[in-house]
């Protein structure tokens, strides 16, 4: 049950990174701003609170077959949104760099 719960929590935290990544096609997070969409932040807060309830509250644990996660597993899972967002930020940077004219081709 711990492995299944860790997988579920990992998917949820990756979706947090994806939510931030999906906010703009080409702009970086610095340009868009971390707190510029309060509804998104509220949705993420609800998602994380609901996930915590499924994992740590006894009744949902029994209903959904989850188990409390140890701190070391939570520490690993907490990095997932940053990996997803960072990977997307690198992809955007490469796309912006490729789209920008090089100094040699500028008039």
Pick out its properties.
107 residues; mainly alpha; 6 helices; elongated
What's the arrangement of secondary structure elements?
Layout lengths: L1 H20 L7 H4 L5 H19 L1 H7 L6 H7 L2 H20 L8
Helix pairs in contact: 1-3, 1-6, 3-4
Main sheet?
Answer: none
Could you give the distance between the termini?
Answer: 63 Å
The secondary-structure class comes to mainly alpha
Tell me the number of strands: 0
Task: Compute the CA-based radius of gyration.
Answer: 18 Å
Mean pLDDT: 88
Order of helices and strands: HHHHHH
Q: How big a fraction of the residues is strand? A: under 5%
Residues in helices, as a percent range? over 70%
Query: What is the total domain count?
Result: 1
Low-confidence stretches: none
User: How many DSSP helices?
Assistant: 6
Choose one word for the global shape: elongated
Polypeptide structure, described:
The protein has 107 residues and is mainly alpha-helical. The protein has one domain (2-99). The chain has helices at residues 2-21, 29-32, 38-56, 58-64, 71-77, 80-99. The mean pLDDT is 88.
């Amino acid at each position: 049950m711990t492995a299944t719960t860790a997988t579920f929590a990992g998917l949820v935290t990756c979706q947090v990174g994806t939510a931030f990544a999906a906010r703009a096609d080409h702009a970086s997070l610095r340009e868009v701003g971390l707190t510029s969409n309060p509804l998104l932040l509220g949705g993420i807060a609800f998602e994380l609170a609901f996930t915590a309830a499924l994992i740590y509250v006894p009744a949902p644990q029994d209903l959904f077959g989850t188990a409390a996660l140890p701190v070391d597993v939570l520490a690993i899972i907490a990095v997932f949104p940053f990996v997803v967002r960072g990977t997307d930020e690198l992809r955007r940077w490469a796309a912006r760099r490729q789209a920008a004219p090089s100094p040699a081709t500028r008039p």
